[in-house]
Write a structure and sequence with these properties.
By secondary structure, the chain is α+β, with helices and mostly antiparallel strands. The protein is built from 8 helices and 9 strands. The longest helix has 9 residues. 29% of the residues are buried.
């Protein structure tokens, strides 16, 4: 069971083919706290809030295969993990925010821990995910920035993993050189991907982000099954 990483707030699963001995349901924990099992047949589509709802398969597949296509959606407007529209305010090392539900503008420090459905996730995760190197570099408190740059979310993703997945070289450089972010830490309780593996998976071994990580001596660890 898991929630998808920010900013993938909504997702869709399309089942294209299956050969199973018994149904293999998707289990989703609703906002009401109840578990819902959804059985899919070939051609079915399930749309769900993947960043805020815990979901997964309750038991192993019994059959030969179950082929899905996954679609992930993120907000068009940049948002912080606290759900507010964000712009950079590097002069003060803060993020200016607009509370879209109340129409008020203010400023909120990235050091805060806003209520989120992904515990441990900070605005450094989001800045890395969208490649906002300016916001990362402009954060005034370097000591606290080092803590934010190595903070793990519920799936053990650090901002460096987000930068690697997104192919954001400049953001990765800032995280590593300014804040000392690790290039070797893995996701999922040290059994998941390293930043280099994510860069290769999403962008290829010859991509700028992968080549930089290789040049820095980053290890290539794949996820353990």
């Amino acid at each position: 069971p898991h929630v998808d990483r920010d900013p993938l707030v909504t997702s869709a699963i399309i089942n294209v083919a299956q050969d199973v001995d018994e149904d293999w349901p998707l289990e989703v924990i609703g906002h009401d706290g109840n578990a819902y099992n959804i059985t899919m047949k070939a051609g079915d589509l399930v749309l769900y809030e993947s960043h805020s709802l815990i979901h997964g398969r309750p038991f192993p597949l019994k059959g030969r295969y179950f082929a899905n296509i996954f679609l992930h959606f993120q907000p068009y407007t940049p948002y912080t993990v606290s759900g507010m529209a964000a712009t950079d305010d590097a002069q003060h090392g803060k993020i200016k925010v607009v509370d879209m539900s109340k129409g008020k503008e203010g400023s909120s420090s990235s050091s805060s821990s806003p209520k989120t459905d992904n515990p441990g996730q900070s605005d450094f995760h989001y800045a890395a995910a969208i490649g906002d190197a300016t916001l990362l570099e402009g954060y005034a408190d370097v000591v606290l920035g080092r803590e934010l740059a190595t903070r793990r979310d519920v799936n053990d993703w650090q901002p460096m993993h987000e930068a690697a997945r997104g192919g954001h070289l400049e953001a990765a450089k800032v995280l590593h050189k300014r804040y000392g972010a690790s290039l070797s830490d893995r996701t999922n309780q040290a059994r998941g991907w390293s930043p280099l593996r994510l860069a290769i998976m999403y962008h290829g071994a010859e991509s700028p982000i992968a080549k930089w990580l290789q040049g820095e001596g980053a290890p290539d660890h794949d996820a353990e099954l």
